[in-house]
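Open question from group meeting: does this chain pack into something compact, or does most of it stay loose? Before anyone orders reagents, we agreed to write out a predicted structure and look at it together. Recording both the input and the output here so the notebook holds the full record.
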Amino acid sequence: MNKIVKNTAILTIITLVAGALLGLVYEITKEPIAVAQENAKQEAYKVVIADAAAFSAYEDFDAEEAKTVVSEAGYTEDITEVAAAEDASGEIIGYVISATSHDGYGGDISVSVGILNDGTVKGIEMLSISETAGLGMKADEPVFKEQFKDKQVEKFTYTKSGEEGDDKIDALSGATITTNAVTNAVDSALVYFQNVLGGSVNE
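Structure tokens returned:
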């Protein structure tokens, strides 16, 4: 019995020490990780709206409102963050809208979409993607992402037949699921922009 009590006490001490060490490591690494994530995000923002001098969080962003707007348009994607893009004088020239699709082949795909006030998509950048190497991961290559660049359309659709048009995106060979997920994420960002931020290609 004494041996059981002794072993239990030892295990308890080990567990407590391990827990304390994990907590300490978390506190030490929390801030550097947050800084690194913020820097990566700011770099992505700069890629999608290169003309912006600064980016600030859109204070009126409401995740539940965004979910409703996107859902009513027929999409299942999540709008996770919105930032206002400002020029050197502080004027808002557009927005960077981050959207996540849950329909990627390898899991969630998160994309930042830069949209100017007139509805022009200036670019997209992957925030998170874990698709198949040589197939779905080609969505993170310039040749694919640049298909969205400088396009002013209501929505994008992908094509496997080479159909032309500003709103047409050539599907990645062998990675239609990935293409669909990225396209839907970008379209969800456009839906949010058009319905919440007051922008529209029809204005």
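Observations to bring back to the group:
The two ends are 81 Å apart (CA to CA).
Strands lie at 54-57, 78-86, 92-104, 107-116, 121-128, 157-159, 168-170.
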